[in-house]
Design a protein that fits this description.
Layout: H1 2-10, H2 25-33, H3 48-57, E1 61-65, H4 67-92, H5 96-106, H6 110-119, H7 126-145, H8 149-169, E2 170-174, H9 177-184
Parallel strand pairs: 1-2
Helix pairs in contact: 4-5, 5-7, 6-7, 7-8
Length: 194
Amino acid sequence: MKRLALASLLTLPIGCQSSPPTPQPSSISTAIATPSAPPAASVEVCGTEAQQALDAMDTRAPVPLLPRMAHHQKQNMRDHLVAVQEIVTAMATDDFAAIERAAGRIGFSEQMGQMCTHMGAGAPGFTDLALTFHHSADAIAAAARQGDRAAVTRALGTTLQTCTGCHAAFRQSVVDEETWNRATSTPPPTAHGQ
């Protein structure tokens, strides 16, 4: 049975894997410095069969999200990565003010708490991990205020451990409004509430 499943994955239509050409080494740093979306014509949208095959391999718990919620969450997570990058860069020069500012962007706030609770409404355990992540970032900012490089490093390690643990346990699952209602027992969010 496993061989049959593997064989079917290996024979997925090549048309679904269309992508832009791989950049040459000399252009990689430019591509990283100035990211841009590939031209729409170079990306094909695959059918649900390929997505179902991927979902069958991914044993993480799904976090049901409406498309706009999933997009919003991905934007936030990309900004979290930028904040971590800023923290690491600032640590190299002991710029504790910059560390505190960057950690503040990923720290806990009432708005962040509400958003995490809303995003995790259909995935037991997700909200707790998300809130732990944001509270752990508060420890980075507190250590930076004290000018304690070792404590900043330990707090950053804890924050990243929480982050990677959450990604190891959960995955986005984009759903329609009817599925969202069933999974969360709540009406769909407004555009402002994501």
